[in-house]
Amino acid sequence: MGLDFTGRVAIVTGAGGGLGRQHALALAARGAKVLVNDLGGAVDGSGGSVSAAQGVVNEIMAAGGVALANGASVTDFAAVQAMVQQALDAWGRVDILVNNAGILRDKSFAKMEMDDFRRVVDVHLMGAAHCCKAVWPHMQAQHYGRILMTTSSTGLYGNFGQANYGAAKLAQVGMMQTLAIEGAKYGIHVNALAPTAATRMTEALFPQEVLAALQPESVVPAMLVLTHESAPTRTILCAGGGGFEAAHITLTQGIYLGTGALVAEQLAERLAETIDGTGQQVPQSGSAQGTLEVGKAMAARR
After folding, report:
1. CA-wise closest residue to 68 among 98, 32, 111, 102
2. What spatial distance separates the first Cα and last Cα of the chain, rounded to whole Å?
């Protein structure tokens, strides 16, 4: 197989079932040693048992692969650090981190308790941050790393009843953008994957015939591309049902209005021109906005 992971060490969170399980199985089948992490809780994050992770480890080992189980909650930074140390003690390095752990507590924003908002953000965003922070110094030291964030179309484009989930998922993209910049000189590539897959987190969202077309296995190729040594960096791939797309956060060319008492009214009149996508760019850093705006301001002074 062209995308070979022999000798690589991967940590996959939320890998006791669904998409994470498929990620772990695929990495192991291509030669990686895999630490399978899963709290083993319910969809809403309650409860916990290492049995789910151990079950996937058993599958990998039965197929001739190498794997270890871990039941840490990604919301517990000390436990996450211990998880990374477990991989280091066993295999001496960590090459790949797949941030896949997640929960759902869906409700319309009007009905959502803030505890449910906070809990979803803690798992998806802080959980990913904890895992990235724990592997970061080791990836820096070895001058190699591949980190994958699991974002969502809900984060990129919104979805009714998922304000908490969407906020956390788009925040992961923001973290990806900065970590990719900071990791570049260390050979650390950071990407994001927005999957559409039939899992226990999505089984209530689609009819049965649609779920049958959205098997988690169909998302795995995108994960492999984004975590391989040939992976790009700062790329958002969308995948589901055998289809693959890319998402971009862009900056339009916009307009220049200067300052003055009527700028708000002028902007309102020319808003369509401001948001027109002709000539838009994919910025390489957040400074692109300031550079564009300063350039317009300086040109207006000439």
Report:
1. 32
2. 59
Inter-axis angle of helices 163-183 and 114-121, to 10 degrees? 30
Strand arrangement of the beta sheet that strand 33-37 belongs to: 66-70, 33-37, 9-12, 96-99, 145-150, 188-195, 236-240, 243-247
Its pTM stands at 0.91
Consecutive H or E run containing 266: helix 263-269
Q: Which pLDDT does position 208 carry in this prediction?
A: 73
Residue type, 4: D
CA distance 177 to 248: 11
Q: What is the pLDDT of residues 232-250, one digit of tens each?
A: 999 999 999 889 999 999 9
Q: Give the DSSP H or E segment for 292.
A: helix 287-301
Long-range contact list for 239-246, CB < 8 A, 24+ apart?
A: 239/193, 239/194, 239/195, 239/196, 240/195, 240/196, 240/197, 240/214, 241/196, 241/213, 241/214, 241/215, 242/218
How many Cβ atoms sit within 10 Å of the Cβ of residue 42? 12
Catalytic residues: 165
Structure-token pair, residue 274: 């401001």
